């Protein structure tokens, strides 16, 4: 009987080792690279994103069209005034909603971002933006 007990013990250890190896093979692809910052984006967005920000003061850089000469004006921060590089016309940052938004620029990878408004009757500015390239997401906070 001792031989059968040893054989069963050996089989149990082999089975446990096989289960451990299979578990490792299943879990390994799901492990997160420690150099990557991954987490849930802003809860209201119901998306996953690599990085994200909330609030108007953290809005991604924008490119707007000059009302005078139709050139593109790059605005790095939402609090900086807009200076046209062609006709030198200046627009205070408060006039941002009156200017035509050409695109928002991802602060991570510099690609064009998809953007939109959820409440067009309440806000004249974008309320969200997402980068399809690096999954950066920005939300305009309004409570």
Describe this structure in words.
There is one protein chain. With 143 residues, the chain is of the alpha+beta class. The protein folds into three domains: 1-31; 33-60 and 106-143, no CATH class; 61-104, no CATH class. It is 18% helix and 25% strand. It is built from one helix and eleven strands. The protein has one helix spanning 2-27; strands spanning 39-40, 48-49, 52-54, 62-65, 72-75, 82-83, 90-91, 100-105, 112-116, 128-130, 137-139. A seven-stranded mixed beta sheet has the order 3-11-10-9-8-4-5, with no helix packed on it. A hairpin with a 6-residue loop joins strand 8 and strand 9 (112-116). Mean pLDDT is 82; it is low at 40-45.
According to DSSP, the number of beta strands is 11
Structural class: alpha+beta
Ranges where pLDDT stays below 50 over 5 or more residues in a row are: 40-45
What percentage of the residues does DSSP assign to strands (E)? 25-35%
Number of helices: 1
**Largest sheet entry:** 7 strands, mixed
Quick structural gist:
By secondary structure, this protein is an alpha+beta fold. The chain has 1 helix and 11 strands; from the N terminus they run αβββββββββββ.
Helices and strands in order:
Layout: H1 2-27, E1 39-40, E2 48-49, E3 52-54, E4 62-65, E5 72-75, E6 82-83, E7 90-91, E8 100-105, E9 112-116, E10 128-130, E11 137-139
Describe the structure using short key phrases:
143 residues, alpha+beta, seven-stranded mixed beta sheet, rod-shaped
